[in-house]
Amino acid sequence: MDDGAIGDDIRRAFPVDGAVPDTPARLACMRELHGHHMQFFAFPVESLKLGHWSALDRIATIEEEWNRYEEARVNEMSPDLPVTAEECRDWFEATAEVHEHHDACDYLQNEASLLDIALLVLAEGKVESYFDDPMTIARDHWDEMGNGKHDAAHTVMLDSTTEWMRENAIAPGFDLGIVEIPKAYANA
Q: Is 160 helix (H, G, I), strand (E, B) or coil?
């Protein structure tokens, strides 16, 4: 893409040549992407009001630059990525095993305060509560969808948990900006 077509804020958010991203620019771009995409996660009756999906030039540019930036990082860190489906399965399983966060799980189980857990739930709620798509990912996400039981769907459970945490675990006036970070939106 022509550098002239890329806004300065986008270039600062997703720099070239290994430069460190500008956190406020990255957060602004990630929030913009999140806002754009979240408008399409609506109940079917509401989706009729949205019109056709359209990718604005700026949204497309942010996505292209983010992909370029992340692909460069991956290629730099992992030059021997798999090329076949079989290699990918083995690589993915080995990578998942190495990168499980046992220390985080142990912390959450044994040391975390209700506030710590509440902040995790609120950050996770940016993505998880809008991930149900039974037509395309049914088998892998049957559990996510509560095994066919509405109240056991992860969307419903996470929305309920997020609401409870906001009302009961977060002190009035607490600055939730702590979960407003680019990684939370990147996950979303």
A: helix
